[in-house]
Amino acid sequence: MNFPRFVLARQHFPNRAITNIREHIRKELSESGLSSRIPKGGKLAIGVGSRGISNLGTIVKSVVDFWKEQGVQPFLFPAMGSHGAATAEGQADVLAHFGIHEATMGVPVVSSLDVVPLGKTPEGIETFMDKNAFEAEGIFLVGRVKWHTDFSGALESGLFKMMAIGLGKFAGARQYHTFGYRIGLEKMIRSVGAKVFASNKVIGGLAIQEGAHHETAGLVAVNASVGLDAMIAKEEQLLSEVKSWKANLPAPDIDILIVDEIGKNISGAGMDTKVINRSVNCTYNPWPELPTVHRIYARSISELSYHSGVGLGMADVVHDRLVNDVDWKPTYINSLTASTPACIRTPIHFPTDREALTNIAPTVGRIDISEVTFCRIHNTLELIDLAVSENLVPSLNSNVEVISAPFEIPWQASGDLGDFKAAAESAAARPHALA
Fold first, then answer.
1. How far is 385 from 378, CA to CA, in rounded Å?
2. What pLDDT, on a 0 to 100 scale, did the predictor assign at position 100?
3. Which CATH architecture has domain 21-243?
């Protein structure tokens, strides 16, 4: 196959990065009235999730330090459902890989799957809470407010989802997703969140917002004393803001999207469904407002995903190394707990990038294969710097800048993709490259 030349491209979005995270958090928490919610000497359980959030270690340490200054005895716990292979050790290890452990945070990390029942919601959902967190004087959550990969609503991923699935641990996650399949995930999150709120154990949280650059763009202290409805309304507002900042793929229609890595640390679904325009049930292009993607090629699993292959099934073709890297035990646990078995189906796979792309290119409906368009991204969190085929350039969105001369794909002797940046620099050094 004759592949088109590529160029490096950069998307331009406002950068909303908070410059002094520690001072910002200190100010937010100081002005929130939260310090009066826990008596001096009281134990505070601080819940942290499993996603790859920018500056997460700094954010969590800043929260811990604030509470220690108030004379409180904080400890950290993993607010996770089935990540870390649904084991206490695995979930503590997930936090440790983000730099969150006792040596760096100065407080214990208490990881357990033990839960206490909180009773049933009006829909009949049995609700649970992490036992160690329940036995503390209060619970404070540190979580990112973001669109959810499985559904669209006014309330998606954020503190309330963490109150439900995170605090419910594996016991809760299994049941909640079962009900979510029947009644809808947003309704389930609202229902379970309200039941957890009624326990009066959650004093509030720090809502993290990220911008298009995957930068820390918002750090908002939320005090549960404002009441359930006001707390929900605040999270809905924060989610609406985040959605307006979202980065998308650089063109309205892409034949083949090359994704260098997938992983649970990148997205709960392995790949952000609202970037690739694929549902967790593998429906093609379910969101008409997003760019159309005809085929997806996934090349590897992120090292921070603990070999979970969740997201594998949303690709049309993958590299052999990705399939060989899957640890099926945590993959099955993640997928079956979330009631998304299609998301881990094994696609067509080949031993080299070249074979994978050569074989998938004729399936996009182009009579002339040289017209097939490509876009390459590192993962679905990092959408600023990317590579696109030269034949896609006329269709690029107005915020996209081409930043290199065209270059031929640098194939390694193995048949895998080489260094695109080096190939672009080499092309720039040759006058004929722009021809």
1. 9
2. 95
3. 3-Layer(aba) Sandwich (3.40)
